[in-house]
Every structure is written in C-alpha cells, then in structure tokens.
Design a protein that fits this description.
The protein has about 200 residues and is of the alpha+beta class. The chain is built from 5 helices and 10 strands. The strands form 2 sheets. Strands 3, 4, 5, 6, 7, 8, 9 and 10 form an 8-stranded mixed sheet that branches. A two-stranded antiparallel sheet has the order 1-2. The protein is globular and about 60 Å long.
C-alpha cells in the first residue's frame, strides 16, 4: 500500500507509526461487520470459496457458510479476548452441524443442499486475541482429532480518517499472510514491510 503525498505529489510507503492502534471491535460489532462484508472477509482469509448462508441459524453458531464445490459446511465463531469460550462453542457447533441430515440442511438454505450430511464442518474462529493455552487446545483438536480449524486474531488500526481491520492468522501461524482491510470493506493491502501475497 502506498500513500499519496499531496504536498510533494509523489507516492511514499506509509510508516508503521502512521497506523494508530485502536481497541478491537466488540463481538457484536465484529459480527455485524463480517456478516455485512462476508465476501471481502472470506477473500482476505484465503477462502473465497466459502459462501455465507446465514447468521445465527442455530444457537451458538454466529455465521454458517458452505463450500458448495466441496460439499463442506463451515461454522464461524466470533469470540472475545483469549478465546477458550469460542473454542468450546466451536466444538459444540461442529457436533451439532455433523448431526444434521440432508433434508434439514436443505431446509435451512438452498446452498446447503450441496453439503454432505454427517461430515464434520470446517471451523473458523475469530477474536481479538488468543492465549497460548487456547491455541494449544486448537492444535490438539487438529493434530489428534483431525478437525479442520483456522483461528484469526482481529486487530483495529486507524490510518488518517479510515478505520482499518488487521486480520492475523493465529492458527496455523505460518501459512496465512496478514492483511489490512478497511472496515467499510474496500480492497486491502499488507501492512508496511509485509510482502504482498503471490498471485494465484
């Protein structure tokens, strides 16, 4: 991302000090933002194939999504700081969704007719921060019980008059890049010093 310097009429790379950290969005605001800007969010976390089919269709499930090509449901859980409560809800949600039969899935949303009944859903867990114990529990669920879980820490920054959302992969740590996106959902750019992701 480059900043247009109106004084010198040139392009300059923003300095890290130009980003002002802010408190992360509260759970309800984060839920509303992601629900409204789902397509941009899904692309940012590297899963544009996921289509959101509804918010809070069942107690404990914040957003339900589906990969129609793979026939796989994804459950999105939005938690508070630290995250143990969110992981617990995610596991309960996975068990509930895996118990749904085909007619039940199809009755919820047309896109869910492509989902495979009885399959454990993909889990996407979001929150302001996650402590080591929570991430260790996630790793245990992935490594020992073969659940497919992605965990993202949501940070807020201000750049001039714009509020930005920084989405950081907390688990797994290495493969996922970090992005900054405006809360309004406009195209994002990596923070200063972060290499751009390779073209697909």
């Amino acid at each position: 991302m480059l900043r247009i310097d109106e004084t010198s009429k040139t392009l300059v790379a923003p300095q890290a000090t130009e980003y002002v950290p802010e408190a992360a969005p509260a759970k309800d605001e984060l839920h509303a933002l992601i629900s409204a800007g789902w397509d941009a969010f899904a692309a940012e976390i590297g899963h544009p194939e996921l289509t959101a089919v509804g918010a809070a269709l069942e107690p404990g499930i914040d957003i339900l999504a589906v990969d129609e090509a793979a026939g796989r449901v994804a459950v999105v859980i939005i938690g508070d700081a630290a995250g143990p409560e969110a992981v617990g809800r995610a596991v309960c949600a996975a068990a509930a969704v895996a118990s749904w039969h085909g007619d039940q899935l199809g009755a919820m949303h047309q896109a869910l007719q492509a989902a495979t009944p009885g399959e454990t859903p993909r889990l996407v867990i979001l929150g302001a921060a996650f402590d080591d114990a929570t991430l260790a529990a996630v790793d245990w669920l992935v490594q020992v019980h073969a659940l497919q879980i992605s965990v993202y820490s949501i940070q807020a920054l201000r750049f001039g008059n714009e509020r930005l959302m920084n989405i950081v992969s907390a688990y797994p740590v290495a493969p996922a890049p970090e992005f900054v996106t405006t809360v309004a959902g406009s195209p994002s750019a990596p923070p200063p010093g972060t290499p751009a992701p390779p073209e697909a």
